[in-house]
Design goal:
167 residues; mainly beta; Structural Genomics Hypothetical 15.5 Kd Protein In mrcA-pckA Intergenic Region, Chain A; 2 domains; five-stranded mixed beta sheet; five-stranded antiparallel beta sheet; 3 helices; 14% helix; elongated; binds zinc ion
C-alpha cells in the first residue's frame, strides 16, 4: 500500500495569541501578547518549556507549554529561542496523491499551541475536500486519530497521529 507521512506543528497565528489574564503589576485583567520567545528551564529532572507573554505595559508572564525529561544533569539550564513567525502548513495535494495511487496519509502532530478542531484543520489543509466531506469521512471512520474513531469536533493534541484512508 502506498502511503505518505507528514509532521505538522500547529500554531495559531501570532496575532491571535492574545490571552486575557490578571497582571499582578497592572493590578487588573489585561490582554497579554505572545512575544514568540520560548524559554527552557531545567531543575535537573525535567526541562520546562515556557512561552513568554507581555502585557501592553511590558510586564512578563510565562506560560508553561510542556515538560520534558532532562537529558543532562545540569542543574541550571537556561535556553531562550525565538520562534519563526507563523509558517504556513503545506496543503495536501489530494488529486496528485490519487493519481499516484496513494491510499493512506499519516500526519503526526508534533506539537500544538492553541486549539485546533480536526474537521476545520483538514478542510483547510486538504485541497479538494470541503468541511462537510471531511466530517462525512470522520463519521464513516475513514479518518482516525491514534487508530480510533473520533468526533468531527475533536481537538488535536501533541503526539496525535491522524490516519486518512483514501476512498
Ligand atoms: Zn501589566
Amino acid at each position: 500500500m502506498l502511503k505518505t507521512w507528514h509532521t505538522w506543528i500547529l500554531k495559531e497565528n501570532n496575532l491571535d495569541r492574545e490571552v486575557l489574564r490578571y497582571c499582578s503589576n497592572c493590578g487588573h485583567i489585561v490582554p497579554f501578547f505572545d512575544t514568540m520567545v520560548r524559554r527552557h528551564n531545567s531543575n535537573g529532572k525535567n526541562v520546562y518549556r515556557f512561552a513568554i507573554y507581555k502585557c501592553v505595559k511590558n510586564h512578563t508572564w510565562n506560560e508553561k507549554l510542556a515538560t520534558y525529561k532532562a537529558y543532562t544533569d545540569h542543574r541550571e539550564v537556561l535556553v531562550t529561542e525565538t520562534i519563526e513567525p507563523q509558517i504556513e502548513l503545506p496543503r495536501l495535494p489530494l488529486q496528485q496523491y490519487q493519481e499516484h495511487g496513494i491510499q493512506e496519509i499519516t500526519i503526526l502532530i508534533e506539537n500544538v499551541e492553541g486549539r485546533f478542531r480536526i474537521d476545520k484543520l483538514l478542510a483547510e489543509r486538504i485541497d479538494g475536500w470541503s468541511r462537510n466531506q471531511v466530517i462525512h469521512r470522520i463519521k464513516e471512520g475513514h479518518i482516525l486519530v491514534n487508530q480510533q474513531q473520533i468526533k468531527p469536533g475533536y481537538t488535536l493534541n501533541a503526539q496525535d497521529i491522524i490516519l486518512i484512508h483514501m476512498q
